């Protein structure tokens, strides 16, 4: 799933490549992806791309006239920039990976695609960002939050720190991958309970959040959209590295699996050497 650093980089790439170009047309190939009906997609034609930005993990493409195309890429969505499209024929609704296509006046443009069978990519065409449900509920940006805000938000929701850190209404922008990386850097168990964290642990977690996300943004900015996934993978220390040695201590990276996701951690670095039981209702190690 694209998280804060990748979406920030995608917005930066669009600012560099698409801003100033006018839209030839916006095409919807996956009807279920478009969550709004007014304005219609035809309203975008002829408008210039003014800006591209990020709200948590939402990508926001702004067209003149204060018209926003807001996109949540979900787990398997991505943006592919095309210097030229193979055909000028409009897309037909179907079952292919392309959900939305934006054609620009120089022949370039971008596709919003989604792999797999679970189609959860969501696009909203709005004049008011507050009408996008996910954006309206976002908590403070995880990278921008100062320590007092970070501490207050984290302690506002009692629960396992892994789940709270990825709750977009608490702090926005962090997902499954970077939460694993942040907790590893902070030397905290993913199952530690938020209201039991000491002030020092909160401060360490805040510093790790800023460091991990900041480093990832720095690595990602300036990369082409096609290169961002590889850049993300290259910077991960524990996430998606089950069975490999921890780059900090050399212990084996372990995994806890859930129904539709998993987390990775280092027992030596994070849980005092105690493995976490690999089942949903395990006895928590704190």
Question: Can you put this structure into words, describing what you see?
Answer:
Residues 237-271 form the FPG-type domain. Pfam families: Fapy_DNA_glyco, H2TH, zf-FPG_IleRS. InterPro entries: FPG_cat (IPR012319), FPG_N (IPR035937), H2TH_FPG (IPR015886), Ribosomal_uS13-like_H2TH (IPR010979), Znf_DNA_glyclase/AP_lyase (IPR000214), Znf_FPG/IleRS (IPR010663). This protein is an alpha+beta fold and 286 residues long. The chain folds into two domains: 4-136, N-terminal domain of MutM-like DNA repair proteins, CATH 3.20.190.10; 147-270, Helicase, Ruva Protein, domain 3. Helix content is 27%, strand content 20%. It is built from eight helices and ten strands. The protein has helices at residues 4-17, 133-136, 147-155, 161-165, 176-186, 199-220, 228-234, 267-270; strands at residues 23-28, 49-55, 58-63, 67-72, 77-82, 98-104, 109-114, 122-126, 254-257, 262-265. Strands 1-6-7-5 form a four-stranded antiparallel β-sheet, with no helix packed on it. The chain has a four-stranded antiparallel β-sheet with strand order 2-3-4-8, with helices on one face. Strand 2 (49-55) and strand 3 form a beta hairpin. Helix 1 (4-17) packs parallel to helix 6 (199-220). The radius of gyration is 20 Å and the shape is elongated. The protein starts with a helix and ends in a 16-residue tail after the last helix. Mean pLDDT is 93; it is low at 280-286.
